[in-house]
């Protein structure tokens, strides 16, 4: 039986149980909240980078509604001296730029937590737990008087944060300089003065309450702080992306933002299409002409791409599609996370064609799988989908800088010489035919109709069988040549084996650190599916707990379909919020 | 050099005898021979409808895509390899119903491609339903009481959307059609050639005879650089007053001419391997 959280409030309210306490040390959770338009997200990322530059591991997570001004935005960063891969439920330092932040998040504060608020505004602190340190800072006044605009309130607040956490103000100033490098020097200077004033005020008034959370440690070698969307963009650039068309949509717009800026420097094309139908067809056209091509969307946009998905399949045109899942059908929960599209991408489009579907579990996998997807697409001449979700796309994590030079570009069976007997869809033992491109001199037809080896439309039964068998056999070749086994994390023998996929990976890895008798099987290849390995591991496990962010347990049913194995229990979450490590710990404790 | 025999394929042509598509096919073949369009320099994209079969009858590398989606395919092809002549074969249903959004936005972006619009004002392949070009009150299988809807004028639509070359020809004018296709291809920008193409099986109104009797050639006194004049001309239709010829032709920057990274070499010739260390440093 699944576990459903019907009440958002219950999600936010945390129990100050032993489980929660476990996560307090060595982890620290910073949270900043305010109205949309207050620069909450940029302040949050700045904090993550400061923590990273101060020598800590970081993971951040943003919650916001689907509007630009007004509405509650909040960003939190978990920092730790040990690797950390998910967001935490409690808050150690809350920065409240408006009253709503206090009202909505005061229950997350623990004894010894702290709250920074504007003591010149009439902010009500009723209900704050006992023992919480209160840091009143005239945030707006500092921004207005010293910076000349309240827009710098997030800078003033971050200055105070640096003081109460014992951090180096220089890191904040450096980041301001980098952030505004294209702006006038006065803007940088004003922001520097504002953050210094926030810092000075906090030190002057609260010197005895300073906690050395951000005390400079030796720097983590080559750590970068990057979002999943940015990692996808970097993966694509590593793989030699040449053409990308993306229609904006949460949570994947970050991919196009990261790419569009660098198209001249790295010599590729980003084009904004009129819709996702155009996006996928443009990318297919570019790929047919020889370019490494990609598109990205969320579930709603993928509905429109379903048609082009199958076109790439039957015309055997390589294409990479990033599908960043968000909550709900139709418009649903646009800015929240979910894992509801697994079955959709496995079955979308009429009839059958070979599709390769990978699901990234974290930001590093988002990079590696995107890069890998380009080689797989070219090699198997078919669409490759990389599933991500809002939790991956829009969170940032401190990761070791990607080694981009290690990647080998494999264009597969490219055929670029002129040959009078060339056959685009030649029958071959591995199902993969030589791929030529327009302009080489070889005649062929890429055809959405069933077609002959040349590509001419043809509906004869024998030809249909040959071409269908040829195409579908590419999946068998892929399973043999390229499919990777899922990783089993934790001890080989365990009392509970968790099976999961996608972004739950982070919270599960953070949770199982608490136990020595729980392991975790993370599945990343959805099609082809590593049936044998998954079946063997699960059928020899003592107790299997499946964890997913969807209603019906799509992975559990896929496992049953592919292996015959039925999981013992599913822990399912569908409220748009990601799984928290604390929830998993509580669940495991109940089961043990 | 392209010879007529080089363009022959082993596939039997399956259009109805007398279909306007034969004229389009022949004119395009003649243009290819005259201009040397071959598999080193030319590519075709087609949608779905009777028109789309043309890719089986001309031995030039083609992509027969989805219904209504040939224009985005062609845009992608042109951006990937801007040295190719890119032709889109499309029908009135394909281009104006299913693919209307792509027609508008392709024109707006002024991609350097040529749209060959087979306009028979009916759905032929699906055996005779109304199309966006079917006249009001026309009875078809889908409009047994007469069509309630106004037809779209594709040239007026393309003009308002930003296309930079607009021409109209009747499928029974082989020489004019060939010349129009060449002129449209040579024009840098989104070129639309509307071809009045009788469907001899499902339409008894827009017949060969009808067009022979009712078209007239735009004269030397017509200023095809005037947007206003072109707009006015698109409203002319009916007995003895169907204008054919170049409606509009202006030079504007194309989508492809504005992408700096493909001005020296086509996209597919640019290096895939990149040094990303500078970009990585931004995430420190």
TrEMBL record, chain B:
GO terms for molecular function: iron-sulfur cluster binding; metal ion binding; oxidoreductase activity, acting on the aldehyde or oxo group of donors, iron-sulfur protein as acceptor; thiamine pyrophosphate binding. Residues 126-151 are annotated as: Disordered. Its cofactor is thiamine diphosphate; [4Fe-4S] cluster; Mg(2+). Residues 48-195 form the Thiamine pyrophosphate enzyme TPP-binding domain. Keywords: Iron, Iron-sulfur, Magnesium, Metal-binding, Oxidoreductase, Thiamine pyrophosphate. GO terms for biological process: cellular respiration. Residues 199-263 form the Pyruvate ferredoxin oxidoreductase beta subunit C-terminal domain. This is 2-oxoacid ferredoxin oxidoreductase. It comes from Candidatus Magasanikbacteria bacterium RIFCSPHIGHO2_01_FULL_33_34.
């Amino acid at each position: 039986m699944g576990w459903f959280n019907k009440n958002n409030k219950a999600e936010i309210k945390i129990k100050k149980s032993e489980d929660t306490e476990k996560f307090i040390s060595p982890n620290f959770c910073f949270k900043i909240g305010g109205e949309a338009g207050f620069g909450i997200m940029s302040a949050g990322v700045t904090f993550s980078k400061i923590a990273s530059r101060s020598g800590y591991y970081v993971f951040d997570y943003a919650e916001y509604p689907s509007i630009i001004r007004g509405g509650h935005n909040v960003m939190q960063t978990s920092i730790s001296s040990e690797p950390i891969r998910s967001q935490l439920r409690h808050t150690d330092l809350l920065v409240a730029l408006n009253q709503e932040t206090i009202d909505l998040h005061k229950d997350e504060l623990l004894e010894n937590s702290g709250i920074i608020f504007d003591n010149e505004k009439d902010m009500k602190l009723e209900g704050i737990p006992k023992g919480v340190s209160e840091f009143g800072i005239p945030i707006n006044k500092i921004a207005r008087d010293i910076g000349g605009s309240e827009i710098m309130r997030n800078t003033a607040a971050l200055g105070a944060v640096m003081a109460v956490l014992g951090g180096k103000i220089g890191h904040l100033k450096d980041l301001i300089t980098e952030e505004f490098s294209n702006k006038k020097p006065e803007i940088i200077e004003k922001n520097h003065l504002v953050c210094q004033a926030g810092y000075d005020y906090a030190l002057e008034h609260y010197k005895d309450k300073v906690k050395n959370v951000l005390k400079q440690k030796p720097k983590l070698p080559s750590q970068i702080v990057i979002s999943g969307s940015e990692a996808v963009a970097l993966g694509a650039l590593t793989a030699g992306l040449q053409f990308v068309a993306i229609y904006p949509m949460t949570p994947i717009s970050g991919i196009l933002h990261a790419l569009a800026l660098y198209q001249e420097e790295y010599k590729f094309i980003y084009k904004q299409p009129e819709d996702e139908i155009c996006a996928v067809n443009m990318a297919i056209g570019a790929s047919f002409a020889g370019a490494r091509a990609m598109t990205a969307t969320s579930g709603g946009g993928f509905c429109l791409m379903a048609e082009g998905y199958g076109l790439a399949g039957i015309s055997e045109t390589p294409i990479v599609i990033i599908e960043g899942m968000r909550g709900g059908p139709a418009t649903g929960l646009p800015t929240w996370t979910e894992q509801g599209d697994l079955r959709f991408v496995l079955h979308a489009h009429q009839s059958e064609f070979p599709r390769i579907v990978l699901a990234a579990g974290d930001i590093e996998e988002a990079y590696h799988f995107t890069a890998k997807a380009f080689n797989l697409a070219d090699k198997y001449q078919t669409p490759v989908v990389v599933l991500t979700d809002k939790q991956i796309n829009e969170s940032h994590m401190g990761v070791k800088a990607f080694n981009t030079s290690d990647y080998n570009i494999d264009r597969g069976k490219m055929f670029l010489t002129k040959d009078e007997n060339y056959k685009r869809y030649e029958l071959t033992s591995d199902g993969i035919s030589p791929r030529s491109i327009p302009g080489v001199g070889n005649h062929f037809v890429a055809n959405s109709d069933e077609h002959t080896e040349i590509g001419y439309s043809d509906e004869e039964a024998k030809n249909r069988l040959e071409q269908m068998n040829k195409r579908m056999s590419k999946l068998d070749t892929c399973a043999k040549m390229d499919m990777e086994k899922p990783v089993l994390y934790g001890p080989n023998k365990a009392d509970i084996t968790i099976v999961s996929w996608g972004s739950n990976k982070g919270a599960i890895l953070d949770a199982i650190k608490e136990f020595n008798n729980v392991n975790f099987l993370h599945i990343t290849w959805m099609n082809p599916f590593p049936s044998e390995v998954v079946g063997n591991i699960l059928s020899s496990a003592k107790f299997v707990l499946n964890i997913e962010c969807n209603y019906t347990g799509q992975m559990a049913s896929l496992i049953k379909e592919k292996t015959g194995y039925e999981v013992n229990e599913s822990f399912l979450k569908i409220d748009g919020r990601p799984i928290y490590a604390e929830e998993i710990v509580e669940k495991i404790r109940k089961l043990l | 050099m392209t010879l007529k025999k080089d363009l022959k394929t082993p596939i039997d042509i399956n259009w109805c005898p007398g279909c306007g598509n034969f004229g389009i096919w022949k004119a395009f073949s003649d243009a290819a021979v005259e201009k040397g369009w071959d598999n080193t320099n030319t590519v075709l994209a087609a949608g779905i409808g009777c028109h789309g079969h043309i890719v089986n009858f001309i031995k030039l590398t083609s992509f027969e895509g989805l219904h209504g989606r040939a224009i985005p395919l062609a845009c992608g092809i042109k951006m990937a390899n801007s040295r190719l002549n890119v032709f889109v074969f499309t029908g009135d249903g394909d281009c104006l119903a299913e693919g209307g959004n792509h027609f508008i936005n392709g024109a707006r972006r002024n991609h350097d491609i040529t749209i060959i619009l087979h306009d028979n004002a009916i759905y032929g392949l699906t055996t005779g339903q109304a199309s966006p070009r079917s006249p009001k009150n026309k009875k078809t299988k889908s409009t047994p009481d007469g069509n309630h809807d106004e037809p779209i004028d594709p040239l007026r639509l393309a003009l308002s959307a930003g296309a930079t070359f607009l021409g109209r020809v009747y499928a029974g004018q082989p020489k004019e059609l060939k010349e129009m296709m060449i002129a449209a291809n040579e024009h840098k920008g989104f070129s639309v050639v509307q071809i009045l193409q009788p469907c001899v099986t499902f339409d008894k109104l827009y017949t060969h005879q009808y067009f022979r009797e009712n078209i007239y050639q735009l004269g030397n006194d017509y200023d095809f650089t005037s947007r206003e004049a072109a707009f006015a001309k698109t409203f002319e239709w009916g007995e003895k007053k169907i204008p054919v010829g170049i409606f509009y032709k202006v030079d504007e920057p194309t989508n492809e001419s504005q992408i700096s990274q493909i001005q020296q070499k086509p996209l597919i010739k640019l290096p895939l391997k990149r040094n990303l260390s500078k970009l990585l440093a931004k995430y420190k």
